[in-house]
């Protein structure tokens, strides 16, 4: 069995053999490791796991929040063939307990930042027979451990957001994760490219961020905080060239004057996904970072980074997510399952990066895996030349005046107005639209005036019925330090009384 079918070996050991003295990882500006040093460090962790009794195929819950620990432990467990249940340290305790209880894990590794949580849940998890502190995972053995899994063997359980119930465990294999690791092969990079990121790397962020950076031979800059304030410190210090974020991050960054004196000229590639990128925000990004290429991407935990395309140079239409990347495929189907072009339907994703299924949930797996395709509930269109335009979730669509629209259309019109930093639109009651807006720093907003301005640019079925001026909009907590995805359901819950 070739060792390159093992995720940890293909990502890290191969880099150590290829460029042993190149810096692979920098941690919080305090520690740096070459590819050879990082490989030997991971090997020490792997031998320590074996000494603790962890075996190939064993499920190991990993509750880690220190980014360096995440990288070390996930890679070590990949090498020895343990299956990592990648837990979210921001889950409520009850969610965490329920996920672990249903995971089939018999071992649990954690770092010091979550020790108090571990102490709370430990008595109620008798199925966990081995508890391991990541700080104690060390061994004097730096040689390669015996590789315990390859190709179609399960690598990890990565969990969905759980917005409609308990987070679902998505099974990714060594092969699917290696396919995801090829992201940067479709994006320009150069010798010395530096990828910067924060604590979002636990979970699916690991194969979507850490894996691609190491696979492409980049230097990975890991921070605990990747919010705007620390971003402005780290980018000039580390000469970061590549970043992957959500558009809301740049709405926050550029909505404050703190960025103005900071040298951000090293940035060459900005990858944006997770929510729509509006024309007005793209214009602000390009004004501030004219040398950076801006890319949109689309994927889900079940099929990460399926599509991508550069949107600032005309090669990919703004508002789209580009084309399927090398080795992947995208299609849109109507309710009968027939493939359609330039017609709204369900988005289908396929490729070697696709999950193998939801762990222990055969009925849910059967709902979304249709042959080679993953169909996850997003609506969109695909053009004749393969460009995907994502319209959003079925449940987010707004019906007004007998016409369906997606919130992004209303939000884009609002943020195109100079005083508006961010906007969130939701459907309320019987065919009405509520729009919440946040003013840019130093600006004020008048809802009546804004309503008149939007009436000039939006058709009747997209015009908001109520506009609320807010200090901020609710976002998911994703540990990046900056805003996560916009939580439209919380906008609805907070302000719907204004419409009723």
From TrEMBL:
AMP-dependent synthetase/ligase domain segment(s): 16-358
SUPFAM superfamilies listed in its UniProt record: Acetyl-CoA synthetase-like (SSF56801)
The species this protein was found in: Nonomuraea recticatena
Pfam assignment, any one: AMP-binding
Domain named AMP-binding enzyme C-terminal: residues: 410-475
Protein name in the entry: Acyl-CoA synthetase
């Amino acid at each position: 069995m070739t060792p390159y079918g093992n995720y940890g070996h293909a990502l890290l050991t191969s880099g150590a053999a290829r460029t042993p003295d190149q810096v692979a990882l920098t941690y919080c500006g305090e520690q740096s490791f070459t590819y050879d040093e990082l490989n030997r460090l991971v090997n020490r962790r792997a031998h320590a796991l074996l000494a603790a009794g962890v075996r190939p195929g064993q499920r190991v819950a990993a509750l880690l929040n220190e980014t360096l620990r995440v990288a070390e432990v996930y890679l070590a467990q990949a090498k020895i063939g343990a299956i990592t249940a990648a837990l979210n340290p921001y889950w409520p305790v009850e969610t965490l307990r329920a996920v672990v209880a249903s995971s089939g894990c018999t071992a649990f590794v954690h770092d010091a930042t979550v020790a108090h949580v571990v102490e709370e849940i430990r008595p109620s998890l008798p199925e966990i027979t081995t508890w391991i502190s990541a700080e104690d995972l060390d061994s004097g053995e730096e040689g390669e451990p015996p590789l315990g899994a390859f190709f179609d063997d399960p690598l990890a359980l990565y969990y969905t957001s759980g917005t409609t119930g308990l987070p679902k465990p998505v099974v990714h294999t060594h092969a699917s994760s290696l396919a995801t690791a090829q992201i940067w092969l479709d994006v320009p990079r150069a010798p010395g490219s530096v990828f910067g990121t924060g604590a979002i790397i636990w979970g699916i962020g690991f194969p979507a961020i850490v894996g691609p950076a190491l696979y492409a031979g980049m230097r990975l800059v890991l921070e605990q905080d990747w919010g705007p304030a620390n971003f402005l410190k780290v980018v000039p210090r580390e000469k970061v060239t590549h970043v992957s974020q959500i558009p809301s991050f740049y709405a926050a960054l550029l909505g404050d004057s703190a960025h103005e004196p900071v040298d951000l000229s090293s940035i060459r590639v900005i990858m944006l996904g997770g929510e729509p990128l509006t024309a007005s925000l793209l214009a602000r990004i390009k004004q501030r970072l004219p040398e950076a290429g801006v890319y949109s991407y689309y994927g889900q935990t079940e099929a990460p980074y399926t599509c991508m395309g550069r949107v600032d140079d005309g090669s990919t239409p703004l508002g789209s997510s580009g084309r399927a990347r090398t080795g992947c495929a995208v299609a849109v189907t109507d309710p009968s399952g027939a493939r359609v072009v330039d017609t709204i339907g369900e988005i289908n994703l396929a490729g070697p990066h696709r999950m193998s299924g939801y762990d222990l949930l055969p009925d849910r797996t059967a709902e979304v895996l249709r042959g080679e395709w993953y169909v996850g509930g997003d609506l969109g269109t695909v053009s004749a030349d393969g460009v995907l335009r994502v319209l959003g979730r079925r449940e987010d669509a707004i019906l007004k005046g007998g016409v369906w629209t997606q919130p992004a259309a209303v939000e884009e019109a609002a943020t195109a107005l100079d005083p508006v930093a961010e906007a969130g639109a939701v459907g309320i009651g019987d065919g009405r639209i509520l729009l919440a807006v946040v003013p840019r720093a130093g600006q004020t907003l008048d809802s009546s005036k804004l309503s008149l301005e939007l009436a000039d640019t939006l058709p009747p079925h997209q015009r908001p019925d109520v506009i609320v001026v807010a200090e901020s909009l609710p976002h998911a907590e994703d540990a990046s330090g900056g805003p996560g995805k916009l939580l439209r359901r919380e906008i609805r819950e907070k302000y719907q009384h204004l419409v009723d």
